């Protein structure tokens, strides 16, 4: 078969389910390979048409969050790869593995199959195409010969799925893909697999002793607990040892929000008095300019890459670094701590009662403030509370990108919450939610985002995908007609500056705002606009009925206060 067909077949052998593809003039050998496979009854990954590369990257990201299995994205030469760059930045920051491919414009002008045939063959040539994504990819390579296909795909997947995980990139010259490739070994086992990291026993025991003997221990978790078993283990540790868990800028849920040890999102008061801090998979566990642990406080970091070595500046104290899978680490830590007895049982019980009371009060305040915001326009917190009540007990997954705040919600399982990556590549939540829905057809998946984030998501492309693939996601836009995050950042640095006193802060307004409901209706989705908070619960219920009964996407454009 052609090298293009062999590439596809090898990916299927290695367990790749989908190729999220935006095709171009470099794709003829890939498309021919797909057609040949169909004609011959060969099994290949399902190739899905993505109208924009940002949607392809977001869907591969969301599919991995659902399944833990890396997928493939294929883009068109340098221009398609440029559109993949934001998604690659997000995936790298969040340790999400994927195989990223793009064609490479032909380097030959004649006399070779696959040579340049149209003017863009000259216009798309770059001296260093890989530079577009090199800083975000763990490994990159340009395919040189057709007989390399099997081993290069094996290596790419093994590296992507080895901790710390992340995207890898392969450039595919058209002339190489057009050449015949050996196919005898396409179905054999991989010649290499991802490396496995383990828990260091001595470091684990030292961390367990520190936490068990601490007077004021604290756990900070940003990226969840690794899975259901890790989620359960962390609850047991927090409960048994009366350790508060602060989910500061949480990207994934690590502890149910109504757990007695679930602390408010602001870690400041707890950091001030902490003598031991366990940091679980957190890029920025606190803000050094605002939060300063005591000089005597011992800090333990646990995660795939506890020091986040890809980032040049990240100078958080680390007395013990545990490089391991988070779920494995938490299970082992729970067992290690069970072998130790609390030094002072009475002190631990007193701490438990005080923390539980404070956490209950903070949660009651969050819910009360949300209920007070149901006017016209309503607050974001009211939208969160209404959504939380509507999906309670349904095992839903919420993707929030500058959308519904977490505090008023009731979230209680490991797949309940996914917040935008800390890299800030906007337009992530909508396609990531589509990717999870593709992987788990029976799960209720919600994408909630700001109006700016919705526009960044290339919504016309995302709605087309949702209709074409029958992905019934609930989309809730929190529409304040501005870049709210930018405005808050300005006020944080210049609270009494000139910008704070203007009627219209420069470079933050998005008025006149489009009619987002009509954008969704163009793809025959359920769409409503809500301006009065009193109407919102009923509209959410109507949208969920549409999803349950008609299996179609539903969008609610909710006008909220700035």
From TrEMBL:
Heme found in the keyword field: no
Species of the source: Nitratireductor thuwali
Family recorded in the similarity comment: Belongs to the TPP enzyme family.
GO molecular function term, any single one: acetolactate synthase activity
NCBIfam families: PRK08327.1
EC number: 2.2.1.6
Start and end residues of each Thiamine pyrophosphate enzyme N-terminal TPP-binding domain: 1-124
Keyword Transferase: yes
InterPro entries: DHS-like_NAD/FAD-binding_dom, THDP-binding, Thiamin_PyroP_enz_TPP-bd_dom, TPP_enz, TPP_enzyme_TPP-bd
Superkingdom of the organism of origin: Bacteria
Top EC class, one word: transferase
Biological classification of the source: Bacteria, Pseudomonadati, Pseudomonadota, Alphaproteobacteria, Hyphomicrobiales
Keywords per UniProt: Thiamine pyrophosphate, Transferase
Official protein name in the record: Acetolactate synthase large subunit
Domain Thiamine pyrophosphate enzyme TPP-binding residue range list: 412-558
Pfam families: TPP_enzyme_C, TPP_enzyme_N
């Amino acid at each position: 078969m052609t090298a293009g067909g062999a590439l596809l077949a090898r990916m299927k052998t290695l367990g790749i389910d989908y190729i999220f593809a935006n095709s171009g003039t470099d794709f003829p050998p890939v498309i021919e390979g797909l057609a040949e496979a169909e004609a011959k009854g060969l099994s290949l990954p399902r190739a899905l048409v993505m109208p924009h590369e940002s949607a392809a990257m977001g869907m591969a990201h969301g599919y991995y969050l659902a399944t833990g299995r890396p997928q493939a994205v294929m883009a068109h030469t340098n221009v398609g790869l440029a559109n993949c760059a934001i998604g690659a930045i997000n995936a790298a920051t969040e340790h999400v593995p994927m195989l990223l491919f793009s064609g490479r414009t032909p380097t030959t002008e004649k006399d070779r199959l696959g040579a340049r045939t149209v003017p863009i063959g000259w216009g798309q040539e770059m001296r260093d195409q890989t530079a577009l994504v090199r800083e975000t990819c763990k490994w990159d390579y340009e395919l040189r010969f057709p007989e390399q296909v099997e081993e290069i795909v094996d290596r790419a997947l093994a590296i992507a799925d080895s901790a710390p995980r992340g995207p890898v990139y392969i450039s595919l010259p058209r002339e190489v893909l057009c050449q015949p490739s050996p196919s005898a070994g396409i179905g054999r086992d991989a010649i290499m697999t991802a490396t496995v990291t383990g828990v260091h026993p001595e470091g684990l025991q030292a961390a367990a002793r520190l936490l068990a003997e601490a007077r004021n221990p604290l756990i900070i978790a940003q990226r969840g607990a690794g899975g259901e078993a890790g989620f359960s283990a962390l609850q047991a540790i927090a409960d048994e040892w009366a350790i508060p868990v602060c989910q500061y800028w949480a990207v994934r849920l690590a502890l149910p929000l109504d757990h007695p040890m679930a602390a408010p999102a602001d870690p400041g008061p707890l950091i001030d008095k902490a003598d031991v801090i366990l940091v679980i998979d957190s890029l920025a566990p606190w803000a050094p300019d605002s939060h300063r642990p005591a000089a005597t406080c011992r800090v333990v970091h646990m995660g795939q890459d506890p020091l986040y070595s890809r980032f040049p500046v990240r100078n958080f104290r680390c007395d013990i670094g545990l490089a391991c899978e988070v779920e494995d680490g938490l299970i082992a830590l729970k067992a290690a701590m069970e072998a130790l007895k609390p030094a002072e049982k009475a002190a631990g019980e007193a701490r438990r009662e005080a923390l539980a009371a404070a956490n209950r009060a903070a949660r009651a305040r969050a819910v009360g403030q949300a209920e007070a915001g149901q006017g016209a326009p309503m607050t974001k917190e009211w939208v969160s509370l209404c959504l939380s009540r509507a999906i309670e007990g349904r095992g839903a997954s919420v993707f929030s990108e500058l959308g519904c705040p977490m505090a008023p919600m009731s979230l209680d399982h490991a797949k309940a919450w996914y917040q935008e990556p800390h890299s800030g590549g906007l337009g992530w939540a909508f396609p990531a939610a589509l990717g999870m829905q593709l992987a788990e057809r029976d799960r209720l998946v919600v994408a909630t985002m700001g109006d700016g984030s919705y526009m960044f998501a290339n919504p016309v492309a995302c709605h087309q995908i949702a209709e074409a693939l029958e992905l019934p996601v609930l989309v809730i836009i929190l529409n304040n007609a501005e870049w709210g995050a930018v405005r808050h950042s300005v006020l944080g640095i210049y609270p009494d500056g000139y910008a704070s006193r203007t009627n219209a802060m420069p470079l933050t307004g998005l008025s006149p705002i489009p009619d987002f409901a009509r954008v969704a209706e163009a793809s025959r989705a359920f769409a409503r606009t809500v301006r009065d908070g009193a109407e919102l619960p009923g509209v959410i219920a109507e949208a969920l009925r549409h999803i349950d009964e008609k299996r179609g996407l539903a969008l609610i454009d909710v006008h909220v206060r700035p």
